[in-house]
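WARN retry 2 of 3 for item q-0093 after timeout on previous attempt; input resubmitted unchanged.
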Amino acid sequence: MAKKKIIILGLGMQGKAALDDIFHNCDVEQIIVADNQSDLNTIRQYSEKNVKLMNIDASDTAQLTLLMKDASLVIDALPGNFAFSVAQVAAKVGVNLVSSMYYINPLEKDLQKIQKLLEQQEQINESAKNNGITILPEFGLDPGIDLVLGAQALSEFDSVDIFNSYGTGLPVDHSAQNTLKYRFSWSVEGVMKACKRPARIIHENRDTEINGLDIFKPENRHIIELDELEMPMECYPNGNSTYYAEIYNIKNTVKSMGRYACRWPGHCDFWERIANSGFLNDEPIQVGSQKVIPIEFTTALLNSQQQFHYNESDKDMALARVDMSGTKDGKNKRVIYQLLDFRDMDTGFTAMQRTVGFTMGIGARLILNDEIPQKGVISPIDVPFKKLENGLKQYNMNITRQEISL
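OK item q-0093 returned
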């Protein structure tokens, strides 16, 4: 088999984890890490072998095209605003791609813009198929692992009445001791935007939209308790369940479906006040002689404080959970699939790096080994459950299954 060249775009937390996975688990001729920085110290433990760091402007499609043209696969670990354009280049060049990002911004409300993006995504799909390559977006923790768990659980039912999925990344133990009981394990800007993102759920067979300013309201949240955790978690709507109901082909049959983020108690009350007080608004306001955009100020303020970032001694956790009820062979049952992971204090990789960065690496390896045969733009639900499960087990990340008779 010919040696492979892998490109990793972005050397943030997830890019570093993806690099570590590919370096230790994939037989490649060369790994090129491309970022807008050129500090070799960031990859010194790999650089003596087959890893090269390149400086690149990811907004320059000519640079991306030149970089990708003779690669076997690209792992996109750049911020989400680059995801769509990177996929367009990959499809045109004819190189496999894995990303943890959405290709259509869940915050987008302009129907004409959404329709145009859908048309462009179909063009990417057709181009990828014609070039015989696979593009796998949304392959991280949430979305990603949760979607694979959902497909596996769904395969165990004849019909599904309730389909709830949960995802979170949180500090644990002493690491949660700050004023927000939260630390940022991914983009601070992304977290702020998610705090006002509209959600769609299916409730009593009806497609229901929840305004972004209402996602934290008491009537839209609930509590779950896990045996592995000392405290309960409060859960609020996160993302578009209707979209995934269509992908799973259950939109017209499922009675209740929701995607939820989980936080420690008190989170929803606090962020409901913040969001409804204007701190997350996009429209600039006059502050003295300057125009200030509130969400940019809030992002910068929180980002500037070390109490909201992880130190080397801090421990985090990541959760993907699917809770499904329905019937099989005329009998009612409930099935729960769950992955709960914690920071590896020996390697330093956080739970979020492990469940997102390593997951992208696993997806890349499955594509390179022809263990995902589909071509074009595919979904995580197309990834075989057992293959992902085996990949996660390499890192002592174990998926549990619980069945309850109803």
